[in-house]
Write a structure and sequence with these properties.
The protein has 10 helices and 8 strands. The chain is α/β, with parallel strands linked by helices. Helix 4 crosses helix 5.
C-alpha cells in the first residue's frame, strides 16, 4: 500500500510542478517578448475616445488609389510574420490591407500565452480598438471607405464576425475556421456577405457546427459562401509562401480573392442594418479544442 501512496504523491507532485511551470511561463514569455510587436508593425493608429493607440501593419498596392480595404485579424498567437506575409500578398491583389494588433502589444508562439491573450482581451475591447482602426481608415486618401471588409484566421475569424455584428460599415466578412454564431436573430445584423472557410478534419469546429452557421445565415437572409475543405486540419492556410506553392492552401486563398473581387472591388449592394448590441458568450469548448489541436492535434504539425 505504501508504494501506491508514493506513486500517487509522485504523480501529484509532477502535475502540480507542470501547472506551476506553465503558469509562470505565461508572464515570463510576455516579458521576454515585449518588443516582438515592434518588428511586425509599421504604423501607430490614434485611439479614439481616450482609448490606447493601436499598432498595426499596413500593406499598400502600387498607385494612388483609392483602394478597397481589408482589415486582417491575426490568430490567437497574435500579430506575426505569417499575417504580415498574407497582408503583403493580399495588397498585391489591389487591396489596402491593415493588420492590427488586437492584443495591445502582446504576441507569442507559446500556446499557453496565446490562450491567455484571448482570455484577457475581451471582444468589447477588441471592437473598441477596431473602431479606432476603422476611424483612421476613413481619413486616409488612399482608402475607399465605402468598401472596407474584414478577414480573420482562427481567433481572428471569430473577431471578424463579431466586429461585423458591431459595425454596420463593414462591407464583407471572411472567416477562416473561426468559432461562429448560429442564431439568425443575431446574424441578421450582419451588413454584408460572408465567406466561411473551414477544415473537415478540424476538431475545434465540427461539420455540424459549420452547417448550423450556414443555416443561420440563410435564415437571416445573409448572402454567404460556406466551404468545408475535406481532410484539412485547423489553421491549414499557413503562410503566403505555402499559398504560392499551390494545393489546397492556394485553393482556399483564391476562393477568398474571388469573394473579395465580387464583394469589395465590384461591390454588391449591402442591406443596411442598425449596429448590433450583442454580448457574445466565451466559446470555451472551441478554445479548449483549439488548445488541443495546436498542442497535440493536426494543427501542431504546422508550427
Amino acid at each position: 500500500m505504501k508504494w501506491f501512496k508514493r506513486i500517487g504523491v509522485g504523480i501529484l507532485v509532477i502535475v502540480l510542478s507542470v501547472f506551476v511551470i506553465v503558469t509562470l511561463s505565461i508572464p515570463a514569455d510576455g516579458l521576454i517578448g515585449r518588443d516582438r510587436i515592434d518588428s511586425v508593425t509599421n504604423v501607430t493608429i490614434p485611439g479614439i475616445n481616450g482609448e490606447p493607440d493601436v499598432k498595426a501593419y499596413v500593406a499598400k498596392p502600387e498607385g494612388p488609389g483609392p483602394f478597397p480595404v481589408v482589415i486582417m485579424i491575426h490568430e490567437f498567437f497574435g500579430l506575426n510574420e505569417s499575417i504580415v506575409g498574407k497582408a503583403e500578398g493580399l495588397a498585391e491583389e489591389g487591396y489596402f490591407v491593415i493588420a492590427p494588433d488586437t492584443f495591445r502589444g502582446s504576441t507569442t508562439s507559446w500556446i499557453p500565452r496565446a490562450i491567455y491573450q484571448v482570455i484577457t482581451n475581451s471582444p468589447e475591447q477588441v471592437n473598441t480598438d477596431l473602431d479606432s482602426v476603422f476611424a483612421w481608415l476613413e481619413t486616409q486618401p488612399e482608402v475607399d471607405a465605402s468598401r472596407i471588409g474584414i478577414a480573420g484566421f482562427c481567433y481572428g475569424g471569430r473577431a471578424s464576425l463579431l466586429y461585423s455584428l458591431h459595425n454596420n460599415g463593414i462591407a464583407a466578412t471572411v472567416i477562416f475556421y473561426g468559432s461562429s454564431e448560429t442564431d439568425p436573430e443575431v446574424l441578421k445584423s450582419l451588413p454584408g456577405p460572408v465567406l466561411g472557410i473551414f477544415g473537415g478534419a478540424d476538431m475545434t469546429i465540427s461539420e455540424a457546427d459549420v452547417k448550423a452557421f450556414e443555416a443561420g445565415l440563410n435564415e437571416a437572409g445573409i448572402s454567404n459562401e460556406i466551404t468545408i475543405y475535406e481532410g484539412q486540419p485547423h489553421a491549414f492556410v499557413t503562410d503566403i509562401e505555402s499559398i504560392r506553392e499551390g494545393g489546397v492552401q492556394a485553393e482556399a486563398w483564391n476562393q477568398m480573392l474571388e469573394f473579395l473581387e465580387k464583394s469589395l472591388k465590384n461591390k454588391d449592394s449591402t442591406h443596411q442594418v442598425s449596429p448590433s448590441v450583442y454580448e457574445p458568450a466565451f466559446p470555451l469548448h472551441y478554445y479548449a479544442m483549439l488548445l488541443y489541436e495546436h498542442a497535440f492535434g493536426s494543427a501542431s504539425r504546422s508550427h
